[in-house]
Amino acid sequence: MCGRFNLFANKQELIERFQLVNGVDFDLSERYNIAPSEDVFTVVKGKDGNRGGFLRWGLIPSWANDAKIGYKMINARAETVDKKPSFKNLLLRRRCFIIANGFYEWKKIGDEKQPYHMRQKNKEPFAFAGLWDRWENNGQMIQSCTMITTEPNKLVQPIHDRMPVILTKEAERIWLDPSVEDPVQLKRLLVPFPSAKMEAYPISSAVNNPQQDFKGIIDKLD
Predict the structure, then answer these.
(1) Burial (CB count within 10 angstroms: exposed 0-12, middle 13-18, buried 19+), residue 88
(2) pTM passes above 0.70
(3) Active centre residues (catalytic)
């Protein structure tokens, strides 16, 4: 699973990188320790182009009786995303990007767990493959999302047995295209990102506490 990531790119960089048409509609702050149940910056395809905005991390399906189900649905497995009732319809009609600069995983070393920061070598912001839904109950409305995970690439494998799906730029185009409704074609995009284009390094255990949210979290341990 993936349970923590960061996003600290500035607004203009994201507008240009993801060709957003609604830059005046949202504000961004640097986040170095984003945790489940928080609002995360996402991109969806609107009628006039790509639109950025915020969704709660932890999917609440539209049919759910209780919003608390979102705490259990921060990730969806690529292998079964077209089969699980919570995800299979969303795969066809409600796909999104979850935007990040990097993410964290923990490697078990003896009785301890060492956190690692992982990102693209070019240090640019990128898109995780995500799904979203709208839940309404008793006048309350929550729009939420889940992040799709897959098997690890060679870089991540020694650290963790899963990794989030990072879309290539070509895959981004297909993922947000509403005319694409073939689950087989979509699942072909849900593969490990090339390890040669990524880097990983150990960081401070400060990241273990989601209350700790500061730039120094991503500093490499000596």
Answers:
(1) middle
(2) yes
(3) 2, 105
